[in-house]
Write a sequence for this structure.
């Protein structure tokens, strides 16, 4: 465990990593309300969204996306949450990520047309 990770242990953000990986939707929601950083990665660069997607926890994936987690964030290995969901065969989690990307893309295209 790195010194940075040791400093984070027990913080709302560190607890969010664990809750996301375990699929604890209620705990994820509480931690988000407590101010856990939705974008910060753990020592491996895995964000809460990546951890939830990798484990196939689609309800947690949707909650994190609704809270503003970037669906296309990359870790130091150059992989995103969708890569982890697809690799592990978690179709529902992958579809939630794909839908988030489609919505944001279609919204930005519509906005550029209006401008």
């Amino acid at each position: 465990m790195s010194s940075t990770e040791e400093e984070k242990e027990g913080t709302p953000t560190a607890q969010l990593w664990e809750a996301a990986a375990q699929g604890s939707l209620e705990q994820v929601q509480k931690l988000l309300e407590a101010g856990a950083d939705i974008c910060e990665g753990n020592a491996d660069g895995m964000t809460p969204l990546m951890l939830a997607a990798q484990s196939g926890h689609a309800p947690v994936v949707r909650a994190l996306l609704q809270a503003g987690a970037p669906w296309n964030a990359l870790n130091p290995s150059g992989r995103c949450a969708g890569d982890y969901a697809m690799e592990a065969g978690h179709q529902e989690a992958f579809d939630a990520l794909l839908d988030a990307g489609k919505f944001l893309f279609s919204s930005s295209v519509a906005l550029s047309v209006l401008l």
